[in-house]
Design goal:
It is built from 1 helix and 12 strands, in the order βββββββββββαβ. It is mainly β and about 140 residues long. The chain has one domain: Acid Proteases (Cathepsin D, subunit A, domain 1), CATH 2.40.70. Strand 2 and strand 3 form a beta hairpin.
Length: about 140
Amino acid sequence: MVLPALGWREWVSLPGLGIRQIKAKVDTGARTSAIHAVRIERPSPKRVRFAVRPLQKSTEEIWCEAELIDERWVSDSGGHRELRPVIHTPLILGPHRWQIEVTLTARDNMLFRMLLGRTALEDRYVVDPAASFLMGKRK
């Protein structure tokens, strides 16, 4: 089976969170996907509420709420460990839609508001590190 190719960065949608578009870095070095979340709250033991700023250099915030499925220790690229909330949410990438697991973390100093990790891509895509936006440009 020939898998479709992704570039090293792609525009994705997270309709379950009300996020129409967010630029994601396709990161095969990251096991789990991550999204930039601020003001993370726990309205109940199994729910998490948070704000997402989907576009860098924009003050637009989208408030999201989801079921908390886990909390995990995650090491970032600098070796720092952080306990992060984990949620499931639908992802749309090009013509495809499926459920992914995402950790919530502050990514203020990062160029990308989202990392798309390898478990979300497994058996779905190959990554062309020389290409960008193979699934389409920002709408």
